Amino acid sequence: MNPTKRCAACKYLRRRCPKDCIFSPYFPPTDPDKFACVHRIYGAGNVSKMLQQIPVQARAEAVESLCFEAKCRVEDPVYGCVGIISLLQTQIQKTQSQIAQTQAEITIAQTQSSQFM
Amino acid sequence: MGGPGSSPCASCKLLRRRCAKDCIFAPYFPPDDPHKFAIVHKVFGASNVSKMLQELPVHQRADAVNSLVFEANARVRDPVYGCVGAISYLQNQVSQLQMQLAVAQAEILCIQMQHEPTLQSHHQVLELDQDHKALLLNNNNNINNCGNNNNNNNLGYAMSAGQFNSNFASPSSIMQMQMQMQMQDPLKQESLWT
């Protein structure tokens, strides 16, 4: 196997990249940071195990979500992507409250309007 | 805490090793909840968790462990999307609610304008801009489509809904956007862990 055609994972792990390498479809050598980030949080062995348990057609999506979560964890080592979930839930509560308030104002305005008619 | 004479923590039990007095896992993985460490170990690996905790100040480690457990549970429930499925679902919910809010605000603006006849004259006709007109026309459709997607802490539905957009914005840009809209409210909620 030509060493220059190793995937990013095998390059990082300094090993031969076999034809059936589980990482190579998802970690091209042009993006070494992608695997480095995932490896830092999950470890190559865990990623490999996770991918093996997923059907082939779903693995690309799984890798993207793992990369996203790993990036979140690197940027926020305490909360990771759970911080984003928390923010979104708070935002939802706030918007629901604003909607309720606005709808109450509409009801009042409509009532006042019908009284004047 | 681990140590001679005391029960080993859940991590050391699973890893079948002596639980040292200064075991980094012991404060967060008590022996009465073996599943907690098992799931984190399955997704992240004990050595990765240990490294992550070592890089954090002690007062932040409990929250870090809780968030790792949350993520690990999400990943086990949904091996393809994990937490990202929930994020995608919640983002859709936010978009729908913001649209509802815009419609409601346009409606109240309309009503207020109807009550201000002095703003209208033979020569000046106030018109809604195109966006507000479109929103009012689509009012009923959008509100009806929101359905029963209520916000709750059980993300089980969110996991299976899994509306996935593979073109993610970066985590930092998503957080910045959300923080701007958050208007500096407290970012983290204890209730997320319960």
TrEMBL record, chain A:
Keyword Oxidoreductase: no
Assigned keywords, A-Z: Coiled coil
LOB domain span: 5-106
Coiled coil: 85-112
The keyword Coiled coil is annotated on this UniProt entry: yes
Family: Belongs to the LOB domain-containing protein family.
Name this protein carries in UniProt: LOB domain-containing protein 24
Automatic annotation (TrEMBL), chain B:
InterPro entries associated with the record: LOB
Pfam families: LOB
Domain LOB, first and last residues per copy: 7-108
Family, per entry: Belongs to the LOB domain-containing protein family.
Protein's name according to its UniProt entry: LOB domain-containing protein 12
Organism for this UniProt entry: Cardamine amara subsp. amara
Lineage: Eukaryota, Viridiplantae, Streptophyta, Embryophyta, Tracheophyta
